[in-house]
Each structure stands twice: as C-alpha cells, then as structure tokens.
Amino acid sequence: MHVSYHSEYSRHLARPMEYKVYGHGGRPVLVFPTSNGRFYQYEDSGMIAELQGFIDAGKVQIWTVDGIDGETFFSKDANFNHRIERHQAYFRYISDEIFPEIARNSREANGGAEIRPLLTGCSMGAFHAANFLFRFPWLGDGIIALSGVYSTKHFFGPCLDGSIYFNSPLHYLANLQDEEALRQIRRLRLMVCCGQGAWEDEMLEETRALEAVLLQKSIPALVDYWGADVSHDWLWWRPQMAYFLDKWLAA
User: Fold this and answer.
1) Distances from the Cα of 18 to the Cα of 46, 96, 216, angstroms
2) CB of 200 closer than 8 Å to CB of 152
3) What integer is the mean pLDDT of 52-67?
C-alpha cells in the first residue's frame, strides 16, 4: 500500500496542519476524525486495515486530515463567536487547501480524470462530513456518516447566532428554500448509519431527526439503524464502514 505523510502550513489557520494519504488511485475518500482526533486516528483505530482490500485494489484513496475541535466545538472559550469563526477558518482550510490537493492528486492518479471525493467520518467526524457537504455540495459526491450528531446544540446550547446557525444542519436544511442548492444536495449519494446500543442515544435521536428533514426536503438517502447491541465504538464503525463503502461504490 502506498502511504504518504504531509505537513503543510495552512494560510487559513496560520499554523502547520498534517494529513496522510493511503493508496495509489481510485475514488478519493476524505476522512474527518472523531472529537479532538488527529490525522493518524483512522490508522490507529484499525480502519485502514479494515479497508485495505478497497485501497490495494485501487478502488479508493483515503485522505485522513487533522481536526481542530479543541479550538472550536470543544473549546472552553466562552466567546461563541470566536469559536465558530475558528471553525469557519477550518472549513476554508478544507475547501481551499485540501480539496485542491485532492483534485490535483486525483487527476494524476486516475489518468487525468478528476473524481470528486466521498466524505466520511465517525461520531464528530460524521458531523463534519455531513455539515461540510450539505454546505458545499458541489465539492463532493456523497457521505458515509456513522454515529453522528447533526446540530450544534451539544456544543453551543440553544444559541444559533450568526455562523452557528449555518453549521447546524438540522436547522439550516429544514429551512432551505433555494432550489439550486437543494438540487445539488439531491444529486449526492448519502449514507447515514447509527447503532442503537451503548452511548448512541444522542446520535440515534439526531440521526432520526436528520432522516425526517431529508424526507421533508425530498433528498434521497440511505439511513440505516443497526441493532441494540451496536455501540458507539470503533468495534462497530469498522464493519459499518466496509459495508457502506462497498454499497456506495456499487451504487
């Protein structure tokens, strides 16, 4: 398996940011880490080993980026505006710095063809993947979101001031009226999953709420609920990701 490590200064975040790329070609898959996770989490958790067959076959190329949740959603800073604007800068880092690298690499690895990435993540990573692509649907082709929450109430309480609202999918999607934006979202292949076991209560509630919003807006999606024994843990996210990635690639 071809693996490359990268550390580059981010102009949007004003500090170095790290990421790794696994694989030689195929569909780019951009992975957001769980809360306060790092770029090496996907490998350390056993997910790269779980997906090795897809990677070695040239079906996917996995991009694992760093997160900055400790400065944003999980920060102790009482200034909500400062925290959410730091998150906005993180999304600009993803859109303006990581996505061009994915596009360039995709063209080189796939004979000149630029393939839009699939976005994914577990837990907080699922929130970031879904939130990013719902806001910028023209940049990717879909999501696989596992055990996520989809509102900002867990981080900012009932506050929806300014940019907080525009990072709370359950709120802005429910109120979205722009038909062009909805058309862009409806073309995406969306797969969302949550277990019904230990530590999944909040995620289960919000996954059901997201399913209702998607249905209300006529946005096609596969929303799946695994059993009462399925907990909020890598033990389950590994087989879930392999299962849904196979379905997503075959769609």
Assistant:
1) 19, 15, 39
2) no
3) 97
- Classify strands 222-225 and 189-194 as parallel, antiparallel or unpaired: parallel
Could you list the residue range(s) of the whole structural domain that residue 173 is in? 3-250
Structure tokens at 230: 């399925």
Residue 122: name the closest of 235, 209, 222 by CA.
Answer: 235
For 59, counting Cβ atoms within 10 Å of its Cβ (0-12 exposed, 13-18 middle, 19+ buried), the class is middle
CA 51, CA 36: separation in Å to the nearest integer? 23
Name the domain count of the chain: 1
Q: What is the pLDDT of residues 202-230, one digit of tens each?
A: 999 999 999 999 999 999 999 999 999 99
Nearest to 242 by CA among 78, 2, 62: 62
Pick from 174, 172, 192, 91: which is nearest to 139 by CA?
Answer: 91
The pLDDT of residue 72 is 97
Distance of alpha carbon 89 from alpha carbon 87, whole angstroms = 5
3-state secondary structure labels for all residues of 17-66: EEEEEECCCCEEEEEECCCCCCCCHHHHCCHHHHCHHHHHCCCEEEEEEC
